[in-house]
Amino acid sequence: MKKLILFTILGLSLLFGSSAIACTSFIVSGKYTVDGKPILFKNRDTGTMDNALHLFTDGKYKYMGLVDAVEKRWNKSVWGGYNEKGFAIINTAAYTNNVGDTTKLKGQDGVVMKKALMVCASVEDFQHFLDTLSRPMGVNSNYGVIDAYGGAAYFETGNYKYVKVDVNDPVVAPRGIVVRTNHSMSGDLSVGFGYNRYDNAIGILNDAWVENKLSAEYLLQAIPRSLYHPRTKTDLTVNIPAKKDVADFRFFIDYIPRVSTASSFMFVGAKDEEHVDNMMMWTILGFPLTSVAIPAWLSSDELPKAAELNMDDYRAPVCNAALDFKAECFPITIDKGTNYINLSAVLNKEGTGYWQLLKPIENEIFDKTEELISKLDEKYSKKEIIEFNAWVDSYLDASYKAQFDVDLLSE
């Protein structure tokens, strides 16, 4: 009951407060990544904390995606996903594309992504798809898309028009990197949101380019877990609290991870159309600082149970655990208390913060996944992916039991 009350309060504050407008995303062209595969990423902020993965077969193409784990609407929208042709899509709310527009139709952003996954095989297909939608479209988004043909672009899209930003254009993206938060560069830059998060993300990505670290593993840990604030030059990883059981609150606004962050996910694209089966998705469910990244392959026709939408209770096990841990990070529920994170629960000198305990678990998954990917790049094997999914579930179940006394998947 305590948890239910807490997240009901959080949900209301997110729906009506500024924290609901806070997604962060980026695309890195495969021409610049360490393995030649494009990367598409989204840090999702929303009023719906329960997120999960689901595999869909209701379109022209099979696809998997991130959904709201809510019984009555889980299958209405997709908030990021990829399909069997190697086409992937995400969005961030832009808030600058429809300035002055009084159109009443709104909130179709996730519906558009679901429909696109059902029928689009490429970036060009998506552009044609947008061209054929009736106006007004009911959207205000930066749509990020990649495909198996080397395509990578953002479409800054409003109710009546869009502007395409080609990530492979060296004039637009000389390092093959484009970031979008909650404003479109083609819109009115005196409004919109996410400028601090934009600066932080682009800074991390540019440093990674210089250091040759444009890899899925590095970026998935560096960006959604970044505790640096570019405006105040505050780094919460410096001078961390001494003990977990002594609360230490820090102001927590305009960081990339936020109280409203419900998931982070990344698509590692196919290096070409002949390797579409190797395309994969990494997903962090619940809250980046209290959860782990889980890999999934659409080509295996199944998902790890830890991240999959459970059709009995419409939730995902690892998300449940992450939200329970997150409650200790944001225990103040009055007087804008969720503006303050209890850093002791995340990081402390004892090494008992949630992220400190979860990182080694995630690192082991990364190491094992890298071994599998090396095999798959040589010769694709659906059987090996299915066996790996079973290992991930077993490993997470045992690790959460040993580290937190949490029965993640056990009956």
Q: Explain this structure to me?
A:
The chain is α+β, with helices and mostly antiparallel strands. The protein is built from 8 helices and 17 strands. The protein has a 7-stranded antiparallel beta sheet with strand order 3-4-5-6-7-8-9, covered by helices on one side. Helix 7 packs antiparallel against helix 8. The longest helix has 25 residues. The radius of gyration is 20 Å and the shape is globular. It starts with a helix and ends in a 7-residue tail after the last helix.
Q: Order of SSEs, N→C?
A: HEEEEEEHHEEEEHHEEEEEEHEHH
Estimated share of beta-strand residues: 15-25%
Biggest sheet record: 7 strands, antiparallel
Helicity, in percent? 25-40%
List the strand order in the largest sheet. 3-4-5-6-7-8-9
Class based on secondary structure composition and strand pairing:
alpha+beta
Radius of gyration: 20 Å
Distance between the termini: 22 Å
In terms of per-residue confidence, which ranges show pLDDT below 50 for 5 or more consecutive residues?
1-19
Number of strands: 17
Taken from the alpha-carbon principal axes, the silhouette is globular
Count of runs of 4 or more consecutive helical residues: 8
Mean pLDDT: 94
